[in-house]
Amino acid sequence: MQYISTRGQVAPIGFIDAILMGLADDGGLLVPTHLPQLSQETLAAWQKLSYSELALEVFSLFIGDEIPREDLKKLVDDSYATFRDPAVTPVRKINDNLHVLELFHGPTFAFKDIALQFLGNLYSYVSGKTNSIIHILGATSGDTGASAIEGVRGKEGIRICILHPHGKVSKVQELQMTTIDDANVLNLAVEGTFDDCQRIIKELFADVEFKHHYHLRAINSINIARILAQTVYYFYAYFRLAEQGVTAKVNFSVPTGNFGDIFAGYLAQKMGLPINKLILATNENNILERFVREGIYQPGEFRGTHSPSMDIQVASNFERYLYYLCGEDASAVASIMAQFKNEGRIEIGADKLALVQADFDAYGVQNEECLDTISSYYGEYSYLLDPHTACGVAAGDRKSAEGEVTVALSTAHPAKFNEAIELRKIEQTYPEQIQALFNKQQKVTVVGGSNDDVKDELVKFF
């Protein structure tokens, strides 16, 4: 399997070169040259596999022989041995119409662990095999940072710097990042929003000379390995419903801000998984909902919400979807992204909007509706949703039709967002690992919101 840029100016490269490149050198995002097409026989065989076995099969399709199968198996097994539930991503039935895919059983209680435990081990493997320097630079709206740090902390040959918006992540998210004392970890709290952090990251990676001089590698979902890892749990969840005898059409409702998690479901569907409907759940920062409804992609006014990890206006993975929406025409994508850079707006025609609406449905959840959903499901089913999962459940309730079953992706443990939970007078007990964070000393540097402010810290660290 080889990888190319959505903007067409990067020669095809292999999987390892793709994960090391992160953001394509032409400013685009890397995608596989083709998507494997799965037969009914393959899907039936995969249904019998454990999570780690399934992940191995999916990764093998996209890695080929670049990593020997036994080495890849060890990487996968080591990555998911850190999860607290033997199923890795268990599926909980809430009622006849709703199942919740619990993605928070990894070390940092967030869905990002599923990709980043693997990517951390993969980077360590590549560093050891190629004697290469790995300097990881990433941005987080809350969960990616902790998961990325946990994946590589203390590992030889790897240093990691994570940017987060100062004062705009939950307290637990902040503590999970900033209480890590390993010498190979740097946390920068940027005075601004997550979109500012993400812009800085993309612009530093687009500075090819700086990127290569300091051996910068990507941990955000601009890295294609992140997306591939996330496709696995769509297959796994679908198979679990089939085992339970579910014969209705299956929807997935996905809380998303950066478009990565739902794009992974889109890839699984294009590979042959018979997903009925992909429901895109946003919060009041609803740029993606507006795109699905109206065909207009335009950042609006930033809104702080009870689901802060989704407080994003510019979705970094949106360009990957544009590539497929444009019929894999890289020149068309390059033209659209140039227009977006100049005008801050993308508007598609009616023909393409019809394709978007065939691929996705969408719903933007308001703050109070998010809290109402947490309250109602806790009261009726004694099941506590974190505010991001609540957005997914609310969107699923709104957009699923009679006779359909919805799987809502639960992206984080509710203990990570007690600020929202306690607004509805719900008390929860923190897991021991999270409770222990409040007694640890923090280690973080607050910086301004410019590229140069961040560059200065990186030069000192790397």
Automatic annotation (TrEMBL):
Keywords from the UniProt entry = Lyase, Pyridoxal phosphate
Required co-factor(s) are: pyridoxal 5'-phosphate
Post-translational modification N6-(pyridoxal phosphate)lysine, affected residues: K112
Report domain Tryptophan synthase beta chain-like PALP positions: 98-405
Q: E.C. number, please?
A: 4.2.3.1
The UniProt GO MF terms for this protein read: threonine synthase activity
Q: Name one GO biological process term.
A: threonine biosynthetic process
Give the Pfam families listed for this entry. PALP (PF00291), Thr_synth_N (PF14821)
UniProt domain Threonine synthase N-terminal: residue ranges = 2-80
Asked if the keyword Lyase belongs to this entry, the reply reads yes
Q: Which family does it belong to?
A: Belongs to the threonine synthase family.
Q: Which PANTHER family match?
A: THREONINE SYNTHASE FAMILY MEMBER, THREONINE SYNTHASE-LIKE 2
Name by which UniProt lists this protein: Threonine synthase
Q: Which organism is it from?
A: Paenibacillus phyllosphaerae
